[in-house]
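Please, structure for the following, as tokens.
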Amino acid sequence: MLKIQVNINIILFTLIFYFLYAFNGFSQDELYRVNTIVIDPGHGGKDPGALSQYGKEKDVVLAIGLKLRKYIEDSLPDVNVIMTRNKDVFVELYRRAKIANENKADLFISIHANSNKSSSPRGSETYVMGLHKTEANLAVAKKENQVILQESNYQQEYDGFDPNSPEGNIIFSLYQNAYLTQSLQMADLIQKHFRRNRMLIDRGVKQAGFLVLWKTAMPSLLVEAGFISNKIDGKYLTSSQGQDSIALAIFQAFREYKNTIESQAIEDNKQQKETKVNFNKGLIFSIQILTTKKNIPLQPENFHKFTDIYKKKYNDWIKYYIGAVSDFDAITDKYKIVKKYYKDAFVVAFNNGEKISIREAKKIEKKSGKK
């Protein structure tokens, strides 16, 4: 029991660490662009994935992934498309996320095919990292996570995670990607375009704890294109026409997502200029919540619905702040609220653009007659 508790503590610490510090990939341009996508065909090599009389999951998802890459490269030449595998090879789950992070991807899509002991279930569903709401969702995640048992150093790479442990799967399902909003947005679009395909039954957008999504530092999702164990889905998934239709639906969703995100970035930039705080004038108290190299769109949904978000650039780093007032008591009241969402947040002070200690700032405030 003690060993389980220690492992849970280690995992919780790791999840918190990655949530706060795994921001190291987006463009430093003033406006956010979806420049790089990583396509991850699941399984491969010694890991066939789901098997049925209709085919192997690893072959199906590779074919879909390659077709998706071609659609993007042909129609969106400004997008850099990276594959975690482009042939039948085994790639560890942690390496798939590492590929995305090292290439500073703006979106990560892992493609899979579902299966069931019963041949009845069919349809497509898209997952994002988060807490499972049903045992069925948990079962899907456990099935996909089992692949790490084929990796020689899985206990080291996944911080002692045991895919057969109920406690371990619950802990990982509690983690949510820092870009949950964008992940859900893309997942919704995929399911919308799947619905337009009469051969695909829409099973909706769901959440569960997938190891392949765990360490990704960008919007990420996992697509279960259909049930290879079902007669209708199985034949469709293994057909060239079916694979092409699925790839096309994902491409159309990606194109719509890219256009929406980039259009919103333009609007956010306009609003940001209109509400920009002059940190260089007088005494300002604020709350620093995050330091990262990512240029995160200043949308409320990216900051737990806070609207008074500001940022300052320091060489390659960007610091994000909530609130900008000249009253220490006011920022203290604000801090009590912010602390509930950003555990490492702290109050900072500026005087005519220069960062000063809180003690010095309070002296200036008192001298000005405000206190």
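The CA atoms of residues 28 and 295 lie 6 Å apart. DSSP finds twelve helices and 13 strands in the chain.
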